Amino acid sequence: MVKTQAKTLINLPPAQVFRFVVDDFVLNYPRWSPEVRSLQAITEGPLRVGWVGRQIRMDQGRRTDSQFRVVALEPGRRVTFRGATDPYLIEYRFEPLGAHTHVTFIFELGRLNLTLRPFEKLIRLAAQNGAKQVVHNLKGLIETELVGTT
Asked: Distance of CA 22 to CAs 49, 85, 96, Å?
């Protein structure tokens, strides 16, 4: 199993950060994760437990097409996605820190198949770099677009 996380402090309150990430997920996710070439909501309506999406990604030249579902949602606190067609888990946690938000991004990749096991170290490094990039992109987008909109 590959597990990694990255954290950042966003200079806005949790309600605004949560809204950008969760309430506007379909609109904003491809913006902070540019590897996403296509995102489709399979389930209509807002994100909620059981909501299903489909994404086509291009990661380091490798195209993946996967469905994922929301498996946990605590308004203002966290959202967790689990791959329905691939063994991964992604979680975003939002913690207040004064008028700011501490965001933690967690990525877990389930058991690697035999053909990928020799590359586990490289996969782990790519996952860590990807996690850092996610929080960097999130912080940049949110602070650029939302500062001064309260």
From this structure: 12, 21, 16
- Of residues 24, 26, 14, 28, the one with CA closest to residue 140: 28
Residue type, 82: R
Mean pLDDT estimate for the chain: 89
Cα(54)–Cα(84) distance, integer angstroms: 9
From the number of C-beta atoms within 10 Å of its C-beta (0-12, 13-18, 19+), residue 20 rates as buried
Nearest partner of 93 among 74, 108, 110, 112, judged by Cα = 74
pTM, whole model, 2 decimals? 0.88
Please give the backbone phi and psi of residue 85, each rounded to the nearest 5 degrees, phi first.
-110, -15
pLDDT tens digit string along 100-122?
999 999 998 876 665 665 565 76
Q: How far apart are CA 128 and CA 107, in angstroms?
A: 9
